[in-house]
Request: fold
Amino acid sequence: MGHGMSEQKTPSQNTVRAICALGLVKGLPPEVAAHVASLARVDVLPGGAGVFTQGAVAQRAYAVLVGAVRIRQIGSDGAQALMRMIAPGEMFGTVALFTEGYYPADAETAMPSHIASWSKADFMALTMNSPQIAINIIGMVGQRLANVQNRLREMATQSAEQRIVHALLMLVEQSGAVQAGACEICIPLRRRDVAELAGTTLYTASRLLAAWEKVGLLARSRQMLVVRDANKLRRIAQGGLL
Amino acid sequence: MGHGMSEQKTPSQNTVRAICALGLVKGLPPEVAAHVASLARVDVLPGGAGVFTQGAVAQRAYAVLVGAVRIRQIGSDGAQALMRMIAPGEMFGTVALFTEGYYPADAETAMPSHIASWSKADFMALTMNSPQIAINIIGMVGQRLANVQNRLREMATQSAEQRIVHALLMLVEQSGAVQAGACEICIPLRRRDVAELAGTTLYTASRLLAAWEKVGLLARSRQMLVVRDANKLRRIAQGGLL
DNA sequence: CAGAAAGGTTGCGTCAGCGCAAACCCGGCA
DNA sequence: TGCCGGGTTTGCGCTGACGCAACCTTTCTG
Reply:
């Protein structure tokens, strides 16, 4: 991890609770979950800090407890794509431990965050010793796979406008906080992020988002995007421009 | 499965060997592999037969022993995308057993095929009882995930031409049979298949493939595509149109 | 508080690729 | 042998969205 700017802790009261709520330990008795938590390391990072880099040897598995993480892939031609945003309660960097052993993307905090992580050895041991954990992992990865496949199909068949809307709806699903009919996406998003998520350009994303803000469909409040009318968004997602 | 046109067998000598070579049982002692094989059902299907359909409740996990299978997803708007072609030795329809429980796509044979399959109960039991199998599954799914993510990035950033080339190279990787410098893709591919794989239209795919055939980069031999110069293809994949 | 840096907006010209429509090829079958 | 049907090719017009360039706004930082 560190460039020295990280503050490291062993799990405290709060973080233990957060770790025990992870999908990883779903269906497990509390004492096992506690054991999993006891093996974790917790890093407190500022925004914009790198967690791991594409191509590095996979040493640890991670989970976001507080904050948000950007997972970005860079092609051999230099083109970038935002694979996903990680919200609190989600894991990342786990698959590489089980496959070729190299992280397939960059990971950096999108805001000040608390990141839990486990060493490869510990994580593999947990998996070997608990079939339930193994199955939980398969479930998580399978979920991701289904999600990415959907995006792939959309990318192939839908317009830039529709893809952006889908990206927004996905983010709402993932970390939406309802408040007075509207719904705030609790992840800091720059235009560039939206564009890369939806597989379009900064310019197109900016144009569309600005237009939607003008109409009152969206709003910005302190770095975050607020969806004011999800249903109207959904209509755009399906019907296209009608 | 069946519309009555399938011929069902219990594993024979040959099929047992094929099943024991699956990634699923990698690193397992032979007797365990044999046990896995003994639980399998084998269907002999003609080309164009449906194996399962999108949205159906996931009952079984599958593997192709002989032949090829098309995995196609259809969006709510009716747009189709070819998620992957399955070559002999690969599994499909497994993830749904661990997630929501519905197949996320259609599966149909692209040619006469032998398909092995396991019931959900058997498959889950195997996973619960053997950590190694669980880890193998995670590895397989992880591999797929990495692959799909790459395609997603390419889809977002590259030209139709480059995406088609990548699709071809992937297929070569997956089921290429070398013969006299050239390399045959042992999966029947229609223009439409290539188009949907690469996320472009039938028309664009046809134009490009025809052009490459004219130049001698590609050829067709009895339903199959033959890559005559993989290196030149790779150059197109990277450099674009130069 | 000034100045820099990072992010956001927008006008405008351009073109890759879409998709209709019409023709073509070819293997199977009566 | 001739017809039928699925797959393929290709001409042509159209447009979504790309991307440069220039400018504006907000957020750091010393």
